[in-house]
Write a structure and sequence with these properties.
The chain is α/β, with parallel strands linked by helices. It contains 10 helices and 7 strands. The strands form 2 sheets. The protein has a 5-stranded parallel β-sheet, with helices on both faces. Helix 7 links the parallel strand 6 and strand 7. The structure holds adenosine-5'-triphosphate and magnesium ion (MG).
Length: about 250
């Protein structure tokens, strides 16, 4: 890994690039994952690489839904494993929620590698390898899932997701939460709860909010979730970006 001094003005961003780059060299991240990361970076730049309070609101509602869920699952792909494997495991433990690996560019080797990364980060078990069920309407590999994992879940967190799987999961009646820096993506517009934030900032906050929400009574959480308007939150996020663009110079 290239040494990046902490004094570098773009230290955080460059460190993430290094994680994605070494993730690709190790076989965790598919080469197209680099492009997806680049799209994310561009939107993060527009946010000033910070979490606006509007995005934090979505994070709290997502935490409430995870606490209310009967059988929640966190879906993990190569980029997520390279950037936030430990946070995924922590979130899985505090909710508690299952972890399942789901890849567009699926190969036995990458599936096993990502499972190992999650297990090394402390996960007791990881779903996805079996692939004994299919999400209806998806002809590609992201449709493959585990019967006891995503297939049977009621709430599913799908960070850095594809719009068509997000829609297909919703069609199955699941509550879908995503983390996506692009408020315009199909995923962002299809999910029930969209956290427009970098996954590296959103996941640790979710861990904290889940711990807080577990102390609250279920009726309060249900009311919070019921009042959530995702499209309104996305509009506000676009407002945040547009205000920043107008006041930068
Ligand atoms: P869609 O199919 O939903 O329209 P897309 O095709 O534009 O999405 P994909 O390549 O499927 O995008 O997935 C990558 C998405 O993840 C992009 O929207 C990108 O902004 C987002 N993204 C990339 N890196 C991060 C990150 N670190 N944190 C949060 N979001 C990210
Ligand atoms: Mg896509």
């Amino acid at each position: 890994m290239t040494h990046i001094p902490k004094s570098h003005p773009r230290y955080q961003s460059l460190m993430l690039r290094e994680l994605i780059s070494s993730g690709m060299k190790n076989g965790l991240v598919h080469e197209t994952g680099l492009i997806a990361h680049g799209r994310g970076e561009a939107f993060d730049y527009l946010l000033g690489e910070d979490t606006p309070s509007i995005a934090d609101e979505a994070c709290k509602i997502a935490a409430a839904q995870l606490v209310l869920a009967n059988d929640p699952v966190l879906s993990v792909n190569g980029n997520v494993a390279a950037l936030v494997a430990q946070d995924c495991v922590k979130l899985g433990q505090v909710v508690p929620a299952k972890l399942e690996v789901n890849l567009f560019h699926r190969s036995a080797e990458r599936m096993n590698l990502i499972c190992d990364v999650l297990k090394n980060a402390g996960a007791a078990s990881v779903y996805g390898i079996h692939g004994d069920a299919r999400i209806a309407g998806l002809d590609h590999n992201r449709g493959i899932c585990d019967k006891n994992g995503i297939y049977g879940s009621d709430v599913v967190l799908v960070p850095l997701e594809d719009g068509d799987r997000c829609a297909a999961l919703k069609k199955m009646g699941k509550i879908v939460i995503t983390i996506d820096l692009n408020p315009l993506s199909r995923t962002a517009r299809t999910a029930d709860i969209t956290i427009v934030d970098n996954v590296v900032r959103a996941l640790p906050r979710m861990v904290k909010y889940v711990q807080d929400m577990k102390q609250q009574d279920k009726e309060t959480l249900k009311n919070m979730a019921m009042l959530w308007d995702n499209m309104d939150n996305l509009r506000k996020m676009l407002g945040v970006i547009s205000d920043r663009l107008h006041t930068l110079f």
